[in-house]
Amino acid sequence: MTDASDRDYPVGYGKPPRHTQFKPGQSGHPSGRPKHATNFATALQQELQATVRVTEEGRRRRLSKQELLAKRLVNKAVELNPKFAALLVSLIPAVQKQMQPQVEGIIEPSAEQLLTESIIKRIRAAAPAESAVAPLADTNPAAGD
């Protein structure tokens, strides 16, 4: 049963016959990924956030698996286990980089400026008098000409 529009439709590469094309609302992979399936990163994050009970210095505590993993990594590195020490040292720059944006937003820019000026004043007040220090020679040759 073909109608006039089907007869005018050219069938070829990238243009399958209309009767074999997917109907509106029909998927090409009907039994594909379930709606609430999680990817690996989500599953890993959920598992790291799960809490476990541990005994620490004779006291029972609840820690997330992520906290427990970090504690054990640091403790093994402190025991001078070379593998764990190398792993911890390699992770430190990434952790510091991740923490940097959080630290920058703590002090408002205006308060930061006042704090910086206050520190500079204290340093200058603690420094010896300028007359006791010999003046530095001009290192810019263009300025002396």
Description:
It is a single chain. The protein is mainly alpha-helical. It has a domain at 41-123. The protein contains six helices and two strands, in the order ααββαααα. It has helices spanning 4-8, 40-49, 65-78, 82-104, 109-126, 141-144; strands at residues 51-56, 59-64. A two-stranded antiparallel sheet has the order 1-2. α3 (65-78) crosses α4 (82-104). The longest helix is centred in the middle third of the chain and has 23 residues, at 82-104. It starts with a helix and ends with a helix.
Instruction: Determine the structural class based on helices, strands and strand pairing.
Output: mainly alpha
Rg of Cα set: 34 Å
Shape: elongated
Flag low-confidence runs: none
Report how far the terminal alpha carbons are from each other: 97 Å
Percentage of residues assigned to helices: 40-55%
How many beta strands in the DSSP annotation? 2
